[in-house]
Input
Amino acid sequence: MTQHMCQGLSLILLLASAIAITEAAEPKCLPQDLLDGGWIQLFDGETLFGWKHVGDAQWKVADGEISSEGDKAGWLMTTTEWADFELHVEYKALAGTNSGIFVRSALDPTDPTKDCYELNIAPRENPFPTGSLVGRLKSPGPGAVSDGEWHEFDITMRGGNVLITCDGNRVLDYCDPSPIRCGHIGLQAKEGLIAFRNIRLSPLGLKSLFHGKDLTGWSLAGAELSKFDVTEAGELHLTNGPGQITSRDEFADFVLQLQCKVNGDGLNSGVFFRTLPKGRWQGYESQINNCYLDADRSRPADFGTGGIYRRQPARRVVADDHQWFTKTIVADGPHFAVWVNGYQVSDWTDTRLAAENPREGLRLAVGAIAIQGHDPTSDFLFRTVRIVGLPE
Output
């Protein structure tokens, strides 16, 4: 791997140390075929970054697993909320274990018929055995037994439809006439030992923002010194700067996925969102800069690729110059999260007072997506730029 030795500011180092997150020595990123399919990891196999404890349950991370003895009840909830998606979760439970996987859930759910969908993991004598949606539909299928072995759940949430397979067998197909539209994903500890691993998600419903043929749907009004072309391979080629290209459509809450390649060493760009219609770089910025300090990827030199510029450095520089990488950005109200190559690198909530300009405070209103040409050295390629708005 290329290792850039870039100089940083003391302020950046101070912000990086303030996060105080235990880092993995070397993250295990998803294989390329899953990345190309839009998949990201919700659990990095090493830490609980991107998760929030709710209730009294005690959770342990070891050997690529999240586990609980089940002596106290509670959840681990994702800090990010999701709408339509495919979710893959592997679980291991002992006989008598009562646990569950919660989707589109309130942060502290109280009623599985109203504020979440609870996919149960429970004995067969339970009114809702493994594979059932508690309070909604008992699985007619032969859900996996709690035998201390690993089993796989695949959950597809699309509008009001909930489709569940267990170990490759369909166990439930439920249609909710009044669906919950969006919410957290949760792991439950209730009774008995439970373990989870290989938790990954692919958002559904994304539409192309860049079609690979021309710049339809984008404005060059703010290009200034930057140049934006479409290559024969259908990629957006950005050179020179400063300047930006902005989407004509505007978004407030969304999931955005794209692929990027940095054609140089230590170059700087960014993806802006909720951007104001006038002025340059007037929005929140998800940084693109693969530099890091002292051969240590946990020390980004300039907030790092996937960091929220000026707000939260990436906890790790995952991408490399001269290689394609994927980026997933989720904006939901004041909360923002970014994944690079399927690995979550930032998780930030804007607690500032409201302001029109995100540089000055919290902005919840819609704005354009903008791609930054930073300076005369800018040389970047972008492709597979897709987005879906989140329901209000």
